[in-house]
Amino acid sequence: MVFLNHAAVAPLSPPAAEALRDYADQAASQAYVGSGWYRAIERLREVAATLIGARGQHEIAFIPNTSTGLSLVAKGFPFRQGDEVVITSVEYPANRYPWQDLARFGVKLIEVPQQRDGRVDVDDVIDAITDRTKIVAVSHVQYATGYRIDLRAISDVVHQARGYLCVDAIQSVGAIPMDVQAMGIDFLSADGHKWMLGPEGAGLFYCHQDLAEMLHPNIVGWLNMRDAHNYGQYDFTFERNARRFEPGTHNIPGLLALGASLQMLLDIGIDNVWQRIEQLTSHLCDGLTSLGHPIISPREPHERSGIVTFTPSPRSETSHAKNSSVDQIAASLAQQNIIIATREGRLRVSPHFYNTIDQIDQLLNAL
């Protein structure tokens, strides 16, 4: 199979699959006795912090999905009636509905439109920030176009307005070098089943160390508490760091698999991963251009990502509607074991570092 759809649900990396098998074997034969799994989970906090440039494991919480992490901010932030949240018009629903739901508390959603060229103009986002803006919630990489936005420019302005930057990073962590400190990110959420090559149901939430106590946990359980393992002493005192957002027991097998995969990415080097993805997507775009397929994804070096979206060449159009022909092309490719996706009436290709130039050529030849 030529799998070029890592922006959807990616294959498990070999280390992740091995971690799941080891968990299943040990859990079936010895339960948790002598497993050491919770020590491995704590190591994952450090690995995750290193991957995204956090200050340490105290800024990392484990979440089941991106939606949960974004909702930790949307539901935990001390909004007041009349406050504003700035988003874009092309966010994945996970990064829209939690903010849209705040309308019932009198919080206004300010939507910045996408440009015709597939970009979201950073200046448009900045112009939407006012003294009422409490959160700017944007995707680092847009799922439908692959456009990567300049987070630093946004964070500088929203911080001047005494607001905060919340980032949906599911389409960048694991593919693109991340530094939450350099980018000025206050909150970040990302599930591990895309570019991190982990299983579904195991993800990461980053919270700046100075902001954790500002957010009230959405769900309260025993593990949120500072003295959680002193079971008989009911001390209702939340953890003071990102652990306050973990209400109960973890998805241990999922997190073990995610940890194994993230360690693999760090061992390879995330800069090397990104360099390889750039090589593959550049080769793809050269081939698409020669075939006459219009490329939608912005391709300036600071805007590109692992996602390339394009439309069929006019000469490949059928008498059917464009969406129909796009679906037909993707289905025909799938019959040849070449896996891509369709989004918003376009074809979307998202290779990872282990894909090859030959596999890109197989896609181009099939097109």
Structure overview:
- The protein folds into two domains: 104 residues, Aspartate Aminotransferase, domain 1; 255 residues, 3-Layer(aba) Sandwich (Aspartate Aminotransferase, domain 2), CATH 3.40.640.10.
- The chain is α/β, with parallel strands linked by helices.
- β6, α7 and β7 form a beta-alpha-beta unit.
- The model has no long low-confidence stretch (mean pLDDT 96).
- The chain contains eleven helices and twelve strands.
- It has a seven-stranded mixed β-sheet, with helices on both faces.
Task: Average the pLDDT over all residues and give the rounded result.
Answer: 96
Largest sheet composition:
7 strands, mixed
Strand content: 5-15%
CATH topology-level fold name of the largest domain: Aspartate Aminotransferase, domain 2
Helix content: 25-40%
Uncertain parts: none
Quick one: CATH superfamily of the largest domain? Type I PLP-dependent aspartate aminotransferase-like (Major domain)
Level-1 CATH class name of the largest domain: Alpha Beta
Name some characteristics of this structure:
single chain, 367 residues, alpha/beta, Aspartate Aminotransferase, domain 1, Aspartate Aminotransferase, domain 2, 2 domains, seven-stranded mixed β-sheet, three-stranded antiparallel β-sheet, 11 helices, globular
Q: Could you give a quick summary of the protein structure above?
A:
With 367 residues, the protein is of the alpha/beta class. Helix content is 36%, strand content 14%.
Summarize the helices and strands and which ones pair or pack.
Layout: E1 2-3, H1 14-30, H2 37-52, E2 60-63, H3 66-76, E3 84-88, H4 97-100, E4 108-112, H5 122-128, E5 133-139, H6 151-160, E6 164-168, H7 180-183, E7 187-191, E8 203-207, H8 252-268, H9 270-291, E9 308-310, H10 322-335, E10 338-339, E11 341-343, E12 346-349, H11 357-366
Helix pairs in contact: 1-8, 2-8, 9-11
